[in-house]
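Could you join me in thinking about how sequence relates to backbone shape in a protein? Label the sequence line and the structure token line clearly, so we can match residues to local backbone shapes. Once you have written the record down, we can walk along the chain together.
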Amino acid sequence: MHQLMAGILEECVLEIRRIQDKARRTGVPNRPRWPMIILRSPKGWTGPKEVDGHKVEGFWRSHQVPLASVKENPAHMKQLEDWLRSYKPEELFDSTGRLIPELKILAPKVRSA
């Protein structure tokens, strides 16, 4: 899924750059058809699949707070911890909590007009 999404994003960026380049070269005003991405994924896709025997992913419960009682329920706290650790924060942030340089350079640069 990630490789497919990366490829589609790349196509969109290249198309946007092509549209911008053409507009700058020709000076002809027009209303381009900008690329659009429609992502269809199950609701709650990255969260817990189930909480207390109740389905969450792809179900209406995913629109709510799936683990609302983490302070009172150690099992919910463990589920929350597992969920958040699934994002592998140790690979994304350094020991001080800052985004690692390899990822920081990937962020888009803000261009002033």
